[in-house]
Amino acid sequence: MKSGVGDLTDICVAGITPFTTIDFPGRLAGVFYLQGCLWRCRYCYNAEFWNLPPAGTRVPLDKLLQFLSARKGHLDGIVFSGGEPTIHERLPVWMKAVKDMGFEIGLHTGGMVPEYLEKVLPLCSWVGLDIKAPFSLYEKVTLIAGSGALARRSAELVLASGVAYEFRTTFHPEVLSEDDILEMARDLVSMGCKHYTFQMFHPDHCTDKELRESAVPIAGISANLRQGLKSLFPKLQVRE
Ligand code: SF4
Q: 82: which strand partners?
């Protein structure tokens, strides 16, 4: 049975990007940013999305439905981003309804709730999964104990699902070393990861003063790290 927009109840969307060519590879897409996140990554540039807002500050349900109905046939897909989309119980129902309207579904996630991720993967055409550190060092980035085990499970689920994906890492040399990144990369390759994006930290909107200030001298990825990553991943993208 198809789920329709009539089945949808409010979901915590804090904002919408009406049109993007970069958030869902190969598709023209809109992005819904879902409010709320369980982790506290030091380099996060979306700290205003950490806490669930009072209902009045969400994008109202009728506005979300109007957006979808007006973009039908004009956009290829809708990306659910955050914050962290997989903490929302209504995400599977929303994804199903949006897919039934004819949109492909993209997902940006940190993989912090593997059991929910597993539920929504069959609805997704593409997943961007943040890999924040070697799994044993996750807490250094997220500040949350046990986060590495959850991320590892999510990475395994994405790789086993057959859904198109990108694993991506944001690097700040104050938080991780280049050796950490290469150790993490080797681990990902051994799990079967082939599509990987490496991006340098940018201080815009980061709330951690220490990281913002120590970012000034960051020149870009070193030749050694670039070469190391290039030798490991068949599909590597570097954003500086
Ligand atoms: S998982 Fe994403 S939204 Fe949550 S704190 Fe980390 S970077 Fe920010």
A: 34
Structural fold of domain 5-239 = TIM Barrel (3.20.20)
Place of tokens 């979306």: 46
pLDDT at 46: 82
Q: Which of 33, 34, 37, 138 to mutate to test the pocket of ligand 1 (most atoms within 8 A of CB)?
A: 37
| Cis preceding-peptide flag for 82 (omega within 30 of 0) | no
Pocket of ligand 1 (CB under 6 A): 37, 39-41, 44, 46, 49, 82-84, 110
Query: What pLDDT sits at residue 7?
Result: 65
Question: What residue spans define the domains of the chain?
Answer: 5-239
Nearest-10 Cα torsion for 23, 177, 220, 188 = -40
Q: Which atom of ligand 1 is nearest to the CA of 82?
A: 3
pLDDT in tens, 11-52: 889 899 999 999 999 999 999 999 999 999 988 888 888 887
Given a cut of 60, is residue 74 above it in pLDDT?
yes
- Residue 142 alpha carbon, nearest atom of ligand 1: 6
Give pLDDT tens digits for 210-238.
Answer: 888 776 556 678 899 999 999 999 999 99
- Rounded CA-CA distance 180/158 in Å is 22
Q: Which of 39, 138, 170, 205 to mutate to test the pocket of ligand 1 (most atoms within 8 A of CB)?
A: 39
